[in-house]
Amino acid sequence: MTILQTLISGLLLGGIYSLISMGLNLILGVVRIVNFAHGEFLMIAMYLSFVFYSTMGLDPYVSGILVIACLFILGLITQRFLIQPILDTPDTTKIFVTLGLSIALQNLALMTMGANHMSVRTSYQSSVISIGELAISIPRLISFIVAISVAALLYLFLQKTMVGKAVRAVSMQRQAAHLMGINVKKIYLLAFGIGIGLVGLAGSMLTPIYSVYPTLGTSFVLIAFVVVVLGGMGSMFGAFFGGLIIGLVEALSGVLLETGLKEAVYFAIFILVLLFRPSGIFGLGKGAEEVG
Amino acid sequence: MKKYLSLLLVAFLLLLSACGSNESSGESSDSLKIGALFPLTGDLALLGEESFRGVELAVEEFNKNGGVNGKEIELVKGDAPDADAGQAEANRLVNQENIKAIVGSYSSSISFAASEVTERNGALYWELGAVSDSVTDRQYKYVLRTNPPASYFSKVNIDFIKEVVTEKLGKDLGDIKVAIAHEDSTYGTTIAEEAKKLADSEGIEIVTTEGYSSSTNDLSSVILNLKNANPDVVIAVSYLNDAILLARQSEELGFKVPVFIGNGGGHTMKDFQDAVGNLADGLFNIDFPQYSINRESTPGMDEFLEMYKEKYGSDPRSGHSLTNYMGMKVVLDVLSEVGEVNPDKLKEEALKYKAEEGTTATGWGVEFDPKDGQNQKGSPYLHQWIDDELLTVWPENVSVEEPQFNK
Questions:
Q1: pLDDT of residue B23
Q2: How far is B49 from chain A (nearest CA, A)?
């Protein structure tokens, strides 16, 4: 019974990780930027969600659409004024820029919102579906379903639409895509915008579950990187299943081994994947050559 | 290009070290400098800042009343988000700012690291809030601590189980099953280990001990392990993030325990209550004195609350400010006697300093152990969340309400 409950809890947690990782993976696959500030965008999304709730009384699920829009625009601005100028610089520069952005955003949040943990209290926050002795938390289930839908929609968008094809083309061959008349800068803007918009969605889903504070992002972003590496860079389904696997691993190792060892276990997996299959489980073999 | 860059760096480093060894004359004639080392940014910022406010208020009040022989006390702030920064900042305060006494520091890891630096340099480290026993266990010459350490928390847990819980649950001491869930930094580990030792010596059964990282995103595995152990009492040591998760996920996973005892940290905070609402009702929590307490045992608390509200525009967010305020007042009393910031004289004077229980704003007395510099006359109290308020319920001389067991 406990193992079954652990599996459920792990899967639901994995859904949360998937949701956060998909946007990160899209940005990584297309723009080739390791966005260390990803967690901070999640934090901003949750603060927005909280502000909509406390000022206008909007339920996090209702204000989700507004949060996604805000974050999409924030993504565009970040790409245009921060990432675009450094695209042709060495990797170290890119790392410093996103890392610097992360620290700046954390401290900005500390200054504007203070260090308090802010929470939204909804009527359904602790409600569960009980099946015999098993309990499934409703807010977590909702975010899980959203994660599945997002993965499917992203896949369809990248595979079936013209714009999606252009995005994939840019990620495979930037120069060639440019010669074929694709506006590469625009595609980058779009990819970054969608990537950050997805974090906005993740933030809205997490607001009923977690309280928000300035350094919240750090606890999620590391896991998101593990998920991306595990699933394969650029692969949307990879990020989705990678998230589920890490969630399951975390919950199971907590019950079967030691609760204090959870983090150690998934970072050990992270190192093993990097050693033996650097392109990830679902990656197509040659690093981040593919998006979809 | 690279060559120039490295030359530039070397020059820069030389410049830095030159600045470092350039001793500024520490004290101007009109002020005495004391370092204040707290985590003011980063994960621990909330309670770090709350702690610092207590120190700030005590110093302001003291300066208003004339300071030491007309000299004002000047606080030199150091920001230490973590232990490494604590060491670096202590170094800066002692070697660059020429500070001879530092107060701090809310977090045990920071305190432990920073007091290594002060000890080596012959400066005084006066701890006002960090609870890990390791800070004083080293028996350093220049370390003092006013607040009770973690082992005193553990003792209150076990005493309460022994003297109150057994009777209320109608069980013998040997039949009570206790589970421990703790975050795995120094703070959580110390309280958990001490509680285990005490439980063993009392013949109380510890059915499981779950350590976890306080920055975790998920405690379902911890809770499922607790659920399997089916305890009568859970002793929890948590910061805020995990305290919230523990309460919410216990509810989600249907884990209920007759007696839940938190140990300060997250379980004390209004943010915790705001986040979990009525899930907090009935939870016990052992911590430094809070504000719903028998005022006859805590003279000076009302004045503190007034000052706090006037300066910061709200009620205190936890008892940390009060504890640091009380501790800082002891520091300033001792400093008044000495008249200068001299580590040896301050230590000597501190060992002579005595105050009876029930004479300070926290209700603690003061008597430092000459061996390790620990004040032996302070103890944390037991509180309970009743109708969204954290009330002191045990021991009787400070309580405002009986402990309730109607969950």
A1: 39
A2: 9
